[in-house]
Design a protein that fits this description.
Radius of gyration of chain B: 13 Å
Strand content of chain B: over 45%
Shape of chain A: globular
Order of helices and strands of chain A: EEEEEEEEEEE
Number of helices of chain A: 0
Order of helices and strands of chain B: EEHEEEEEEE
Radius of gyration of chain A: 13 Å
Distance between the termini of chain B: 35 Å
Largest sheet of chain B: 6 strands, mixed
Structural class of chain B: mainly beta
Helix content of chain B: under 10%
Largest interface: A-B, 20 and 22 residues
Helix content of chain A: under 10%
Oligomer: heterodimer
Number of strands of chain B: 9
Shape of chain B: globular
Number of strands of chain A: 11
């Protein structure tokens, strides 16, 4: 069955970096754009950005532009979110979601930014 | 404005019909999807392209759109439908989520 699995979350100090991953299975990964969405504790969903099918284009929310980078390796069916200059307000569960309709979601990986 | 507005909460009795609205300028420009999120679970797509239902989603879920307002309707609401519901659309290359509506089935 179609599945997305995130990994790599953890606790990190403000100003530091962290890279999380999302691996897909059960579908042709390279056929779909991939999104990252986050959810702060007790809050709603916030789109972070997406990457095109082939990785040639990336788009970001203003809140992370210039700090976060999305990349993908279609040979590994994996999309990445590199988070730099992390802030306390970046604390959230980070989800990957497939395609323009966000039709499939992973289980999320928690990221805590705290000193 | 590029924001999507949803009422924070709504309640319904089991077996009744409930409408959850999502409004804003971006609704008029692109199609709308709806997501259900039960407590401690990932979001789940229940409606896409305004009114299309993915396979496996119960027929009691339906969607519509008129002008700058999209509506998710649950007909014959079940206790298992108690969850947060989020609308989403695209504003050019940016995805926008509504703030979410908490549905309570009393």
């Amino acid at each position: 069955q179609e599945q997305l699995v995130e990994s790599g979350g953890g606790v990190v100090q403000p100003g530091r970096s962290l890279k999380v991953s999302c691996s897909g299975s059960g579908f042709t990964f390279s056929n779909f754009i991939m999104n990252w969405v986050r959810q702060a504790p007790g809050k709603g969903l916030e789109w972070v950005g997406f990457i095109s099918y082939d990785g040639s284009s990336q788009y970001y929310a203003d809140s992370v532009k210039g700090r976060f980078i999305i990349s993908r390796d279609n040979s590994r069916n994996t999309v990445y979110l590199q988070m730099n200059s992390l802030r306390v307000e970046d604390t959230a569960v980070y989800y990957c979601a497939r395609d323009r309709n966000f039709a499939r979601w992973g289980q999320g990986t928690p990221v805590t930014v705290s000193s | 404005s590029s924001a999507l507005s949803q009422s924070p909460s709504v309640s319904v009795s089991p077996g009744q019909t409930v409408n959850i609205a999502c409004s804003g300028d971006p609704v008029g420009a692109d199609s709308v999807s709806w997501y259900q999120q039960r407590p401690r679970r990932s979001p789940f797509l229940v409606i896409y392209q305004n009114n299309r239902r993915p396979s496996g989603v119960p027929e009691r879920f339906s969607g519509s759109k008129s002008g700058n307002t999209a509506t998710l309707t649950i007909t014959g609401t079940q206790p298992m439908d108690e969850a947060h519901y989020y609308c989403r659309t695209w504003d050019s290359t940016n995805a926008i989520f509504g703030g979410g509506t908490e549905l309570t089935v009393l």
